[in-house]
Amino acid sequence: MAVTGILGKKIGMTQVFDERGEVHPITVLQAGPCVITQLKTLAKDGYDSAQIGLVEFVKGSKVNKAQAGHFAKNNVPPVKLLKEVPVEVLATTGEVVQDAEDGNGAGNGKMKAGDKVLVDIFSDDKYVDVSGTSKGRGFAGVIRRHGFGGGPKSHGHMFQVQGSIGASSFPSRVFPGQRMPGHMGAASVTVRNLRIRGIDLDENLLMVEGAVPGPRDGYVLISKSKAPPRERRGFGGSGTVDPLKASKKASGGKAPAKGGAKKK
Q1: Which residues lie in Low complexity bias regions (predicted)?
Q2: For the chain, what are the domain ranges?
Q3: What is the DSSP letter of 255?
């Protein structure tokens, strides 16, 4: 597909074992299906992107007149959630990569409004970035919000306070950025470079290693990783080589001779 992201839901967490017997925490995501509701081009809009909607259709009475006209113009049914994502552009010609699926699920070589966006856009990727809204914690103190250690725990002291927040005579104010109690959570969070551990093309499921922001059934945006990590030596299935053992093996099982012959 030409688009670089897809809308989905967080189903929950589980764990899997790899071929070495090591356990990995896994988050299962319902990645789509989505539908393209609008296409923006460099010539008309100044940049290339696609507006996608999660396939959770709603009644026409649930959207306002502006949204109803937007959906009718692009000949797509009203959906509950919309998001604009970038599209892949060829570096040589500057043309948009066109490999969308039509309504029958067959590739037609063109991308247009009404085409499906499925989880198979990540078939050739190893890492993804997931954006969501973190769980709301309400008004929280510094112990929970910032991880403060609290005050002395002996008799007569208050434990859940942050202590001094500034001097009195000078500067006679609280510096900006002082960590204090306040609203916690319910913020937009992006977790980058989550390793893909499995893809279910039939059910549109994506399994990533690690935690994803938000509660179960929370909406998330899954995007191709912008800066995937480099594969290190001994990482990602590649084995390491001991130089001493390799040298001994190359010499036919004999230890390499030391420099210089012995004098008689």
Answers
A1: 249-264
A2: 139-184
A3: P
Element (H, E) at 206: strand 205-209
Residue 215, phi-psi category: left (phi > 0), alpha (psi -120 to 50), beta (remainder): beta
Print burial letters for 117-155: b (CB count within 10 Å at least 16), e (below 16): bbbebbeeeebbbbbbbeeeeeeebbeebeeeeeeeeee
* Token pair belonging to 250: 């190359």
pTM of the model: 0.75
Q: 43: helix, coil or strand?
A: helix
User: Which residues on neighbouring strands pair with residue 221, listed in sequence order?
Assistant: 7, 131
Q: How far apart are CA 218 and CA 54, in angstroms?
A: 13
How far is residue 155 from each of residues 27, 71, 143, 158, measured CA to CA in Å? 45, 65, 19, 9
CA distance 190 to 213: 8
Per-residue pLDDT of 154-193, as tens digits, reads 877 778 888 888 888 888 899 999 999 999 999 999 999 9
